[in-house]
Amino acid sequence: MFDYIATPAELQTLLIDLSDAQWVVLDTEFIREKTYYPQLCLIQLATEKRLACIDPLAIADLTPLFTWLHQPTLLKIFHAASQDLEIFYHLSKQVPAPVFDTQIAAAVLGLGDQLGYGRLVETLLGVNLDKSQSRTDWSARPLRHEQLEYAIDDVRYLKQIYPLLQQQLKTLQRDQWVFKSFAKLTDPNTYEVDIRGTWKRVKNSQLLKPQQLSVLRELAAWRESEALHKNLPKRWLISDEILVDMARMRIQKIEDFRNIRGLKEETIQQQGSQWLKLIQMGMKLPAEEWPQPTRRRTLDAELALLTDLLMLVVGQQALQYNISPQMLATRPQIEKMLIEQRTSLSEDWRGSILNDVFADLLAGKKTIAVKQQKVFLQD
Q1: Per-residue pLDDT tens over the stretch 116-135
Q2: Which residue blocks in 322-374 are alpha helix, DSSP H?
Q3: What is the DSSP string of 82-123?
Q4: Region of residue 331 (phi > 0: left; psi between -120 and 50: alpha; otherwise: beta)
Q5: What's the rounded Cα separation, in Å, for the pair 63 and 97?
Q6: Is 77 in a helix, a strand, or coil?
Q7: Structural domains in the chain, sorted by start
Q8: Which residues have a Cβ under 8 Å from the Cβ of 183 and sit 6 or more positions away?
Q9: For the whole model, what pTM was predicted?
């Protein structure tokens, strides 16, 4: 059984009942098709003694819930936490902490990288979840009982899985590995929008020259700011394809925008003057301030051999810890590390396994040896 919380009074009663909880399992349902920010439609939670669905569309002020969630003594448990935490940060301007992410824990335990919730439940509990409501419009009201049952399952079983994962991490002495990954999830900077850096995610930006990228940076920053202000999807304002065309063409007057396929005359009349100013701003910047295209550098023969060597180490460490090599590191990741002249791969749990080994090997403090058809590292 679970409670459906749809009034401030019901929420207050629930929070009083949960005041002594040491941990809470959380999940959200949201839609994002028509907005820049996710529209929160349902919050599911589970503690040792309660299951509840909270209706944020019926309760205008969620401040009491956020006050309770932000208690530093209350552990917040999620599966694939980043989207849920982004929503809470947007609404409360604070990231709930501390957190435990069962997807990360499953990866550390070798159960699978980016493992979905349904697969995790099946693997650990032998339960096949109902998928019939996966296309639900969570903003529609009233929600049917089967929809709510589907939603509450996302925390009903996770409260059973959490102690299993926690115990396995302690048994294998891997509980320390996850801390850096969990800490990154609670860093507010993770959810802040880098408006000036959004040009890097524009499709086909790598095809542009540096001065054209300077123009693209101004246009992409304008689009991001407008989307934020109006709470609309970026693609509704202007597509990536059109942004790249604007940056590539040497536009000098508003009439030139009419040569770009897909731009409506009404939009040109409304925004043309602003776009022209942005283009001129990007073109006038000195060359040393132009962004540089992100093209993949090729490895020379020596670095290619070194990559092969480190990939062998990845395989050896994966075998030692019973984790898939692909979950530890990929060849492109190692190539990037060597090109950037780093000796550490990452700051998450993978780095806990590989960073020191890589650093010692690259410094000549360790070597790879073979004995009785087994590969191992020796001092």
Answers
A1: 999 999 999 999 998 888 88
A2: 325-328, 331-339, 349-362
A3: HHHHHHHHHHHSS---SEEEHHHHHHHTTS-TT--HHHHHHH
A4: alpha
A5: 16
A6: strand
A7: 3-191 (3.30.420.10), 195-289 (1.10.150.80), 301-378 (1.10.150)
A8: none
A9: 0.89
